[in-house]
Amino acid sequence: MPWFKRVEKGIHTPTEEKKETPDGLWYKCPSCKAVTSMAEHRKNLSTCVKCNHHDRVGSKEYFAILFDNNEFTELDANLTSGDPLDFVDSKPYPNRIVATQKSTGLKDAVRSAYGKMNGQEITISCMDFNFIGGSMGSVVGEKIARAIDHARKTRTPFMMISKSGGARMMEAGFSLMQMAKTSAKLALLSEEGLPYISMLTDPTTGGVTASYAMLGDFNIAEPGALIGFAGPRVIKETIGKDLPKGFQSAEFVLEHGFLDFIVDRKELKQKLTDLLTMVYVKEADATATKSSKATKAS
Ligand SMILES: [Zn+2]
User: Fold this and answer.
1) Alpha-carbon distance 73 to 273, whole Å?
2) What global pTM score does this model have?
3) Predicted pLDDT of residue 232
4) How far is the CA of 208 from the centre of ligand 1 (A)?
5) 65-101 burial string, b = 16+ CB within 10 Å, else e?
6) How far apart are CA 26 and CA 49, in angstroms?
7) Facing residues of 81 across strands?
8) pLDDT in tens, 34-70
9) Is 126 annotated as a binding residue?
10) Boundaries of each CoA carboxyltransferase N-terminal domain copy (predicted)?
């Protein structure tokens, strides 16, 4: 038996009088299907209130989470890509870049900035998946290299937030060179005694996993993030075996020793602050601490 029965027949509502829910008011979790208001979802830093599914967010959101009062200075904001190979797929590469810049409001797949996190200075590079799948081309590599140089110059810790489908095919070999370039810069950072925290978010794959994303003094990840080099289908075809359950999830990767810990986005800022307080004291502060100790001693 139906719950509602139409008493009168032939009722028609003109289209202009039909009431529709405005778009973007509600959020439906792709994992548990729970529905919450968009405002509450954003307040919860785009994690599901019910099952804690971490939704993909971009550099804008991560900078807002990490930098105090969302205050930061962006580095190399206007660096844009060339077209070294005259690459054309369904459209020429320069046209694709311009179209993506227009639709996303971003210049390329990474943004770098420095500012304060709970009062501690830090330099952060964060990738954006919306920009051609967060692919790593020359601009991404160069911006990360320059951000590392900025961290070295200012003697601040460096953090990388990765979210990438891998190297950018439209730049072929030029993309692959970015792996070596960023790795070399990170080696200099390490030699100079500055900490590097790498956070892998959903998804981190390909050449990014094979270079800077896995080179952190601390490699951390968000819950449920897909982390891998090749995709599961390619691996399955290569080894001719079924893959274990949960293969390439952050939890699986942690269990197999490739990650230091998994961090909830809502606890990220405090955990990073605690970690950096333990491992790093900036020289000026170090001298101050030493001299205050000396004063106490005398
Ligand atoms: Zn959910």
Assistant:
1) 19
2) 0.88
3) 84
4) 28
5) bbbeeeebeebbeebebeeeeeeeeeeebbebbeebe
6) 13
7) none
8) 999 999 999 999 999 999 999 999 999 999 999 999 9
9) no
10) 25-294
Within 8 A by CB and 6+ apart from 181, the residues are 141, 142, 145
Cα 31 to middle of ligand 1, angstroms: 5
* DSSP category for residue 71: -
Distance 227 CA to ligand 1 centre (A): 20
**Ligand 1 centroid distance, CA of 188 (Å):** 42
Residue with tokens 């550099």: 59
Counts for the chain of helices (H) and strands (E), in that order: 10, 9
CATH of 56-284, one of 3.90.226.10, 3.30.110.30, 2.60.40.10, 3.30.420.40: 3.90.226.10
Query: Which sequence spans correspond to the domains of the chain?
Result: 26-55, 56-284
- Which pLDDT score, from 0 to 100, does residue 21 have? 62
Query: Cβ of 164: how many Cβ atoms within 10 Å?
Result: 27
Tell me the one-letter amino acid at 33: K
d(CA 164, CA 236): 21
